[in-house]
Each structure stands twice: as C-alpha cells, then as structure tokens.
Write a structure and sequence with these properties.
Elements lengths: L1 H7 L32 E3 L3 H7 L2 E4 L3 E4 L19 E9 L2 E9 L7 H13 L11 H4 L12 E6 L2 H13 L14 H15 L3 E6 L5 E7 L2 H11 L5 E3 L16 E3 L19 H12 L23 H7 L5 E4 L3 H12 L8 H8 L1 H38 L6 H30 L13 H4 L4 E6 L4 E6 L1 H40 L4 H34 L4 H30 L4 E2 L2 E2 L8 H40 L12 H7 L7 H17 L6 H23 L13 H24 L3 H4 L5 H26 L4 H20 L5 H4 E5 L5 E5 L3
Helix pairs in contact: 2-3, 7-8, 10-21, 11-12, 12-13, 12-21, 13-20, 13-22, 13-24, 15-16, 15-17, 16-17, 16-18, 17-18, 17-20, 17-22, 18-21, 20-21, 20-22, 22-24
Length: 845
C-alpha cells in the first residue's frame, strides 16, 4: 500500500530504507565506493521492479535515486511513465577485480507499467547476482504479522449453506456473484454477523475474520490498540484494573515487581511497570478490558453496544444473551501464543524448577495463582514428615519380621509429630496468605460481585426497594430458602447415614467371608474388603456431588461467594464421613461392637495391619481416579479432535490446516478449582488423620502433589480454554476447613494412640486399660494447648513483610502526590448562566 501511495504522491515517505548492497548498512550512510551517491533522481517505482533490478535507492519524498557504481557513468532515465531508453554501464567489484556488465534496451513510445516490468525487469534478471549483493524480495517486504503485544478475544458465528456457496464462488471466480440476481444466495447467517462486526469496528476495535477448516464457523478475532486500552483502563477504575508502579534502586536500576499497586491514570502511564509480555497491559488485562467493552458495563468506555441492555434478559450480559439468542456460537479469550509457549516450557515441563508464580498470577489471576502457591507450600512442608515416615515404615517392616506385627515404639511419637505438623501447616499457610495479599495489593481489595444469573431469573426471586441504597434490588423468597436449607441438612444427614450403613455392611461381609474361608485367606479377604470400601467411596462421592449441587441451586443464593460457601459446606461435611469413616471404624470401633450379633473384630484384636492395607488401597484408588479424570480423559478427547481434523481432509487427501483459534475453540471450558481443592484437602486429611497407620503415606502425598502441580498446569495451558482472570484475597472456606482438619487430627491421632496402637505399653508396661485411655486424653489436651499457643504466636504476618508493604504504600503515595492532577469529574462542575449558557466552575464545598 505504501508503494502505491508513493507512486502517486511525491510527498510519501518510503516504508523502510533499503540496505546498502556493499556494506549491508543503511543506504543513508555513504560508506561504500566512490560514486555511490552519484545518480539521478527518478519517481518512485513499486518494489517488484526495483527489487528485481537492484537499480534504485530510495530517498525522501517518494523518489528513487538510481545507482551508479564504480567509475563508470551510467545514464538513467525516469523509471516510470516516460518513453526514454535505458542505456548505460554498471561497474561492480568482486574480490578486487573489476567486472563490467552491460545492458541495452530500445525505447518505447508509450511504455506502460506492465511493459516496463516485462522488458526491463526481464533484462535485469539476467544480470548475475553475487551472493550477498542484493536483498531478496521477501527480506525487503516482510510477511505482515499481527502485533504479538495485542491480545485477542474470540467471537464465533455459525455459517449456513448460502454463505459457503458465496465463498465457493469467490474461490473459483475471484469475486462474489452479482447481488440482486436470481442465483444470488441470501445468507441470513452473514446478515446476522455483519451488523455486529460493523459495531465492533465503529467502537475502534480491531476485527480479523477467519473461516474454520470445516467451513462451519466464522471466527472473529477482536483486539484493541494501546491507546484504546488506556482509555478503557481508566474507566474501569482501581477495583477492576490495577498496575504495579516502577521502582528503582539507588543506582537507577529498575527493581522487578518492587513497586506498589495503583489504579491506572493516562497521565501517569510512564510510571507503571510493563508486563512480562512486553506491553503495558498484560494479555489477561486486555481481555478483561475487551469483555468490559463488549458487555457494555460502563458507557464511558464507549463500547460497541452489541445489544441494548433493555433487550437482555435479567441477569444476562450482552454476550451471554447473544449466545442464548443463537446469534453467536460461543465466545472466549484467546491464549497469548508466546506467553503460553513460555509457560509450557518453564512451568509445565520444568518439573524440578521453581514455579513462576508471578507469571501465573499475571496470566491467570490471583485465584489460580493462590492454588499453585498452596500446592507448592504443601510440597515444602511435606519433605521432613516424608523422610521421618520412611524411617518409621522401615522400622515397621523390621518389627513385623521380628514380632509378627507392625506396631513398634516409634508409632506413638510419629502420631504426636503429625498432629504438631498439622498445627504448624495451617498456621504457616495463614501467614503466607497475608504475605501474598500485601505483595499483590489485595489486602483491602473487594471486587464487586454481581447477582447470579440463575438467582435473578428464578421465579422465587423478588425485586423490592432498598431503603439503604435507595435502589431496587433482588431478594430471595425467605420461606423458600429456609425450606430448602432444612431439606439440604436432612439430605446430607440421610446420605451420611446411608454411607455409614454401607461401610458397616462391607465390614460384615468381610468378616463373614473370613470365617467361611478360614484364617489362611485372611490377607486376601482384607484386600477384597478394602477394594469394596474404595469402590463405595467413589460411588457415593459421584452421587453426592450430583445431589448436593442441585440442592444448592434450589436454595437460590444471591452471589457466587454465597453459592460457593454453601457448596463447600455440603461437600466437606459428607466428604469427611464418606472418605474417613471406613478408616475410623476399622481403627477404633471394629473390635468393640457386634453387628446383628456378628463378631466383626480383627484376629487377636490387632487391626493395624488391616488399616494399613485399607489406607493404601483407598488412597491409591482416589489418586488413580483423579489422574484418569485430569489426564487420560482430556488426552483421549484431544486425540479424538485430531482424528476428526484428519477426516476433514480435502479431495486431494491433504490434511485441513487448523488455526490456533479453531483448536482453542474445540477445547472445553475450565470448570473451576472447587473439585481440585476438595480432592487435595481430602488427601491432606488422610495424612493428618491416619499418617501414623500408614507411615509412607506422606511420601506418596508428596509425589502426588508434585504430579498434580504439573498436571493441573498442563490442563490450564493446553487442555482447556483460557481462564478468565479473577481476583482473590485468599482461598476462602478451604482455609477454614484446614483449621477444622488440624483440630480433628489431634483428636484422631490421640484415639489412635489410645485404642489402636499398643506401643505406648512398651514405655509403661504396667499400664492398665484405664490408665492407657487417660494417657491418650492427656496427650490430646497437651496438643490442643500447643495449638492455642502456636496460633497466638505465629498467626500474624511477619514483621519484615509488614514493613515492606508499608514502605511500598508510602512510596506510592509520595510518587502519585508529585504527579497529582485535578480530577475534573470531582472538582469541576457544570453551571448555567442566567442567559442559559453553560460554563465550568469549581465545585463549592
């Protein structure tokens, strides 16, 4: 396009200067042979001619300076629009020798552009071109690429047969069929898409269109320029758009991630630190801006207004309403290609390296980053108990060889250590949460929460006037909610009772088979009983998830936070009974009760070996179930997509090329972190409650956690669509669950010392049963006292973190004060004169 303009206008500036063929440097530096600047000036010609002949040198103003090499005098005529002949000599030098090349062509009276290219270009192509003498056309006119600093948001439209017929006509004939004719196909899908695309472009958004490989979808990639980003970021405000300020040391060197956080202001753009992607706003922030514009959250952003708000159903955004109306198929945020590849190599594939938490937070948001911080902290805390557990496990093997039982003097000590570790783990995590809140500036940040779409559209939701906010707000039906909260409590209780009855039934069957087969089959009976318990746990977990999610929907919670809290409460209450009751029953109860007159106790009342087998099988089955759900099923789906792509080959058996956005369109949406947190806390509970029964469990948990981090990272990077970034201060109700877990660990480990293990009698052989129980209670009280003292001492944020946070805030306030500019919306108002003319004036306080 620049070449076309330069050919028509003498004032146009060339797109980029040519390289000097002698030195490879800019032609504006006359450092070649004598006479390199000796030449006539002719009008600019397109690069197809100049690149083939290698004859010209661009100058300012859209002209072409024709070269004259060496001592020969070449006579050059204007390169376009004239009827003059080109006769001359060109001297070149190669390896110190002088080589003369000549060319002569006759004149034409009225040479047009094609004739000139055909005659002169073909002659110039005959001139031998030494290696390195002349740049190729590809290097002079590089292939245009879209800027990598701009993120893309994707809207997918459905295509119909008429639209595909038009595209086929264009492919064959090079143009669309004439409109208005009888054979012109009317595409309603195209008529649906075009107004929306026009609105996007009118809102100063960059729109690129591409067709899917199967020609079933039209994919629109939406981006916004950096200037537009600054305008929207300022409208979004500090709650939705925060940037880190620059900070330098005493020598003026920048300190990465060293500044405080502040809302964006256009006049302070030079004070903000750039993202790791090289742009001022990261791709996640750009996607948030585009979604802010597309959903028309604030009119000041001047978005495209794809739909009027009155046309949207209550609780629906314009994008979701377009999906409901079948005007678009789907919408999602496209992965940033370079950042995605960097995360794949430095995070997913780097199993032994440190997690790039700052890059994860920048790309996925604080909510996802905190999940991986939690898993990394868990790995750090598991190293010592894992090593101790291996040692205790080795001593159990020695004891079993020598005494016929795995019980040994070190098991009570290891049980006490696990309880103390649980207290330290929970307290340390609370400190880390506070530290990251100060590091990421989320201490006082409370992002606004909108009402849930299901809540707003429910027929048990009413609108009434709020006397406090003076606005109309949605409120749930109190009677309806109360009824279903009670129903949920009853359902959870009944489901827990049913689960307990099933677990006890499995133990009865185990005991019956043991007596029927005899003592020599005891090991096989234990394994079969453990497998039956593990299958029951997985089955009940699936049924409970389906039941409790539907009950939570019927409770009609207003915000996502309330809905999430109710879901976590149900899942963890039932999960505690479902996952741990078989182990609690086998450890503490099985030797002291009879079920329907059937003795289900272990041989010689020694159940510690059965509990070990049960713990190993139950834990392994749940880990395998999670790996199948997270790895095997997504890989199978991905392979199916690749096979379907091969089936969409053309008639020449060429595999259809699939674009990156089309591949991401086929990926499933990310389902959130609730299931991941739930399964991880269940695994931690196994170690906190029964780590002394199965000492190598801690090492298994350490290995599984290391695998989980990379598997979940691979799911985020490669297996799902990009996650919309979310701000979170902490992990929410899961931290409360951990606090409950630490108290339960003290109680269960104390019961294990008093009921299951007999190793305490090794230290006090004359201890009676009552004294044994009293010792376990004393240990439990001592551990609870330890928890109270430890939490009171180490629950606050470290002093150095608090000091660094206050220093950053002080430096931020001082910096912004020096660059403070008046906020015209707050300090200036509109006033009307008596004649009716408006003028600006300061607001009178």
């Amino acid at each position: 396009r620049h070449c076309e303009v330069a050919q028509r206008s003498p004032l146009a500036t060339p797109r980029k200067p040519w390289r000097d063929p002698c030195s490879g440097e800019s032609p504006w530096a006359p450092n070649c042979q004598d006479g390199s600047w000796g030449g006539l000036v002719a009008p600019f010609v397109p690069p197809q001619i100049s690149s083939r002949g290698g004859r010209g040198r661009r100058t300012a103003g859209g002209w072409l300076r024709l070269r004259r090499r060496g001592e020969g005098r070449g006579v050059m005529a204007p390169a376009a629009g004239g009827g003059m002949a080109m006769v001359g000599w060109r001297w070149t030098r190669r390896r110190g020798k002088k080589i003369v090349q000549s060319y002569t062509r006759g004149a034409r009276e009225q040479p047009d552009q094609d004739a000139f290219e055909g005659v002169v270009g073909s002659q110039l192509r005959r001139i031998p071109n030494p290696k390195g003498y002349q740049a190729t056309e590809e290097s002079q006119i590089p292939k245009p690429t879209f800027p990598s600093t701009l993120a893309s948001y994707v809207l997918v439209f459905e295509m119909d047969d008429e639209w595909r017929a038009i595209l086929e006509h264009v492919r064959i004939n090079g143009e669309e069929p004439p409109k208005g004719g009888e054979d012109y196909p009317v595409s309603y899908a195209r008529m649906n898409m075009q107004p929306l695309v026009d609105k996007l472009r009118s809102a100063d958004m960059i729109v690129r269109e591409s067709i899917s490989s199967d020609q079933q979808s039209m994919i629109c990639l939406i981006s916004i320029s950096e200037k537009r980003q600054k305008q929207v970021a300022e409208v979004m405000g500090e709650e939705l758009m925060r940037l880190r300020l620059k900070k330098k040391d005493d020598y003026g060197n920048p300190i990465k991630n060293g500044g405080g956080w502040a809302g964006f202001k256009q006049q302070l753009a030079h004070l903000y630190e750039k993202s790791s992607e090289g742009s001022l706003f990261s791709s996640a922030q750009q996607c948030a801006m585009m979604e802010f514009m597309l959903n028309d959250v604030d009119e000041r952003a001047m978005g495209p207004q794809l739909l009027q708000k009155e046309a949207c159903e209550p609780g629906e955004t314009p994008l979701s309403q377009l999906v409901n109306d079948l005007r678009i198929k789907t919408y999602f945020c496209l992965h940033h290609k370079k950042k995605r590849e960097w995360l794949a190599s430095n995070w997913v594939s780097n199993s032994l390296g440190k997690q790039p938490i700052e890059d994860v937070r920048e790309y996925y948001g604080e909510e996802v980053a905190l999940f991986f911080v939690f898993n990394g902290y868990l790995m750090t805390m598991l190293w010592v108990p894992a090593a101790v557990g291996l040692l205790v496990g080795l001593l159990e093997l020695i004891a079993e060889v020598e005494d016929g039982t795995v019980d040994n003097p070190f098991i009570p000590l290891y049980a006490i250590y696990i309880s103390m570790w649980a207290v330290q783990f929970v307290s340390g995590w609370k400190r880390i949460e506070l530290a990251y809140q100060m590091e990421w500036g989320t201490v006082d940040l409370e992002p606004p929460e909108d009402d849930r779409t299901a809540f707003v559209q429910s027929n048990k939701t009413y609108k009434r006037h709020n006397d406090v906010s003076k606005k109309e707000e949605f409120f749930p039906d109190p009677i309806w909610r109360s009824v279903f909260i009670v129903a949920s409590c009853v359902a959870v209780t009944l489901f827990c009772c049913l689960n307990v009855a099933t677990s006890i039934t499995c133990e009865v069957l185990k005991s019956v088979f043991h007596r029927a087969l005899g003592g020599e089959w005891w090991t096989l009976v234990k394994i079969v009983g453990a497998l039956l318990q593990a299958g029951t746990i997985l089955l009940y977990r699936f049924l409970a998830t389906f039941l409790f999610d539907n009950l939570t929907n019927l409770e009609n919670w207003k915000t996502e936070k309330e809905y999430h809290t109710a879901t976590v409460a149900k899942r963890m209450c039932f999960g505690y009974v479902n996952s741990y009751f078989p182990l609690i029953f086998g450890s503490f109860i099985i030797n002291h009760v009879k079920v329907f007159g059937i003795d289900i106790s272990c041989p010689d009342n020694d159940c510690i070996d059965y509990v070990e087998i049960l713990m190993a099988i139950v834990f392994t089955s749940q880990v395998l179930h999670k790996l199948v759900a997270k790895v095997a099923i997504p890989m199978f789906r991905k392979r199916q997509q690749e096979e379907e792509a091969k089936e969409r080959a053309d008639l020449d058996d060429m595999i259809a090329e699939i674009s990156d956005q089309e591949m991401q369109m086929e990926l499933p949406e990310f389902q959130g972190l609730e299931n991941d947190y739930s399964s991880k806390l269940i695994e931690i509970g196994y170690f906190m409650f029964f780590g002394a029964d199965f000492p190598i469990l801690c090492m298994l948990l350490l290995i599984i956690t290391a695998i989980d981090i990379r598997v979940q990272a691979n799911v985020l990077v490669s297996m799902t669509q990009r996650v919309p970034p979310k701000v979170a201060r902490d992990i929410g109700e899961w931290c409360t669950t951990l606090d409950v877990w630490s108290v339960a660990s003290i109680l269960i480990q104390s019961c294990f010392i008093g009921y299951t293990s007999q190793a305490l009698r090794i230290y006090l052989p004359d201890m009676s049963s009552v004294e044994h129980l009293f010792a376990a209670v004393a240990i439990e009280h001592a551990l609870l006292l330890f928890k109270i003292m430890w939490d009171s001492k180490f629950s606050d944020v470290p002093d150095e973190v608090q000091l660094a946070y206050e220093r950053k805030n002080y430096e931020r306030d001082v910096l912004l004060k020096n660059f403070d500019t008046p906020d015209f919306e707050k300090k200036v108002g509109f006033y009307t004169e008596e004649e009716g003319h408006m003028y600006y004036g300061k607001v009178q306080e």
